[in-house]
Each structure stands twice: as C-alpha cells, then as structure tokens.
Sequence to fold (480 residues):
Amino acid sequence: MSATPAALLVDRLTKVYADGTHALDALELRVPSGCFFGLLGPNGAGKTTVINAAAGLVRAPAEKVYVFGHDAVRDPRARLLLGLAPQEVHLDRFLSARDLLVFHGRFFGMRRADATVRADELLTVFDLMGKADTKPNRLSGGMRRRLLIARALVHRPRLLVLDEPTAGVDLVLRHELWRYLRRLHATEGVSVLLTTHYIEEAEALCERVAFIRDGQIVAEGSIAELRDCFGGERLEDAYMEAMQT
Amino acid sequence: MTTATLRDVQRRGTLALAARESQRVVVLWTQTILPPVVTALLFLAVFGGALGSRVGEIEGLPYLTFILPGLLVLTVAGSAFSNNSTSLFQAKSEGYIEDVLTSPLQPWHFTLAYMAGGLVRAFAAAAVLAAIATPLTGGSRTRRSLSPRSCSPGSFSRRSVSSRASGPTPSTSTRSSPTLSWCRSRCSAASSTRRALSMSPGLLSRGSTRSSTSLTRPEQVLRAFTKPLCGSRSR
Fold:
C-alpha cells in the first residue's frame, strides 16, 4: 500500500451468493485518492456487488476491501468516508425531502443543526428547495434521483460512489448532474467511483476507467491508455474490443 | 478519528434512528396507535360489557376493572412487537433500509433504536387506552387495580396463589427472581382467563332457575354452547 491510501482498494475479493452465483472472482481494483474513476461492464458483470461490498450492503470477508485504508468490513470509519447513491431509488416515503437529508446526516453522526444547514445547502444545489417539504413519492423520477445523490453527499464523504446515477434521467438533467459532479470533484476534491452503461458519460467525466467482466477486472487505465491498448478511436471501441476478447 | 469520537458519532446516529422511529409512530398514528386501542376497547366491550355483568366481581373488583390491566399489558406487548417487525420489514421491502445499513452504526445500535420506537408506540397506545377506558370502568377502583403495586408481577403472583390456595399468601413469591415472577404472572394471567371462562357456565347454570324463554337471545345461544360443559352443575 502506498503512503497515500487509495480511496478504494479491493484485494482479490471473491463473492459467491447463496444461490451459487459467482459475482466476483478474485477481483482486484484500486481507485486512487482524488480520482474520478469509471467502472464499465455489461449487466451482471459484478459492478454493483463491488460497490455494495464497499458500502457494507453485501457480506464480504475482512481485509479484502479498504476505504482510505480502513477495512470496510471491520472498521465503521470506512462507512463515514463513503457516500453511496444506489442504482435503485429507494427513499423513505414517510419523511419529507429535507427530513430525509437531515436524518441521513444524523445517522452519520452530524448534529441536527449542522445536518439541517447541509440539507438546505444540498437542496439548493440540486434545485430541490421548492420541494423541501414534499414526500419523495410525490417527486418526479428526476427529482428523486437528484435527492438520492444529495443524500449520498450530506455527511461530506471523501469517496462518492454512484451506481448508474443517470439511468432513466433525461438529457438536460444528465448534463446538469455532470456539471455538478465535475464541480464537486474539482472544488472539494471528492473521489468519485462511477458505474454506468453510457460510455460517453465515462468518457466525459472519468480520469481513469476499468472494464469489468464476469467478476474480474479485464483492463484498467486512463481513457487514452485503454484506446491505445485495445485500438479504436473512441472509448466505446476499446470497450467493445475488451468485452469480446 | 479516535475511538471516542467514533463512539460519539454512533451514539448520535442511534439517537437519530430512535427519533426517526418515534416520529414514524406519531406521524402514522392511525396505523400505529389507533388499531391496538380499538382492539383493546373491543375486548373491553365484548368481555367487560357483554360478559362482565354475569361474571360478577373477581378479587373484589368488577370484571371490567379486573381485565383492564391485562388488556393494557397485552396492548404494550403487542404494539412493541408489531412496531419493530413492521418498521424493519417495511424498510427492507421498500429498500430504504440501506440508508441506515450504510451508516457507521453497529447491529446493536439498530436494535436499541428500533426498540425505542417500539416502546414509544407501546406506551402511547397504552396511555390512550388507559385514558379512554379508566372512566368507563369506574375511577377509584380502576386506579387501585392499575396502581404499580397491584400491577406488579409479584402482585399477580400473590393474587394467583391466594386464589388457588385457601391459606395465607406465601411471602416467597414476592422475593423470587424477576424471570420467575414474569413466568408466574403469565401463568396467573392464563389461570385467571380460564377461571373467568369456567365461571360463565356456572353463572348461567345459576340463572337456570329462570325459564329458557325468559333468557335473552344471546343468553340462549351462549347457554346452548355451554350446556355440555355445565350440564352436571345444572343438574
């Protein structure tokens, strides 16, 4: 391990679900600190399993997943450093948008006053202040998606994990989210791990990209390195080549 | 981050989760507080109103007053259990449980916080029930039956033992372990129920001096059902 711990380090992680599905097969991944990192792969490749193992939603053996040097399984400090926006939008329908953010901050140890200030700040940034007192089930799909990303940011994580954040989001909102993520990454130095099926999204945002297939990382590098390695003019060509070889 | 700071973070997180669970109980009062209160009031109406006048006094208390503490305990236990189970499974089935599962809280923190929500619901329902039912069952006697001394497990044990044995109450029952007292209170509750039920046919049989035509329709139905049980007494 280098002097500056990686934002996320996965060390030969194997995950077999109870039904016998081999989700991950000795997967190794290193997301450098401060990096905007993309994880690309087909459906069922293991992207969400990696993310859930880091966030504590999937059981993983100890000493296999580290967040900024903290064991994601044994050390609760790892959870404080990671913010997760899951693929599916699940929000507590009994709470208003503001309460949802405030409670999330408080679950992560923030004081009520601090969490309220932070919630209002994020509601403004994500253009949801007008819906602060609205329950999530009365929000549009795009608003719920924005609220989900806002929730992941309440406790000021150093690693933001976005699992297909723009799936089902219209083009205008997608570009708004891109702008916000770029700004967040540039100004606050937040490391970002992004999984997506939109290759152009990874090309527009990510500094480094890894291709995952059948629970293993098949290639990892900057976009230019991957293009050089697999050929083609665009990242999409490199991706297609990597998935077929 | 030091261990002390982490503990502080987890303590605040646990309190926040407990607050969310308690808030849920209050916001959804029509689903959390109202149903157990209505159920208990129905019990009071059926057992206390319909059967109470026939059962007469138990332990020197009217039947309605006698069963109220039991109904309160039943409300507390049922509400606490159902709140924790429904809240947890709703969060899991709707998927928003990941909000707390990704937090730095440990499983025992979740347990404490969910228990707090269950307690809030249980005591809120019991308080509402007591407020509604106490005037119905008569003020001073109910206060006596609901007093901490009379509601304690030891008190139930004493009553149970004294109702079974004609001799003086063994003083050891009050000095037994809490677990034993709890078990005894459950046993005494069951025996009280059995006793109350067994008294109904007897009372009906005492009323058999009345002609069957002078009985009301519900009494006739009840008598028809209990005839095989109280036939020997009637004779």
Observations:
- Confidence is low (pLDDT under 50) at residues 153-179, 200-212, 225-235 of chain B.
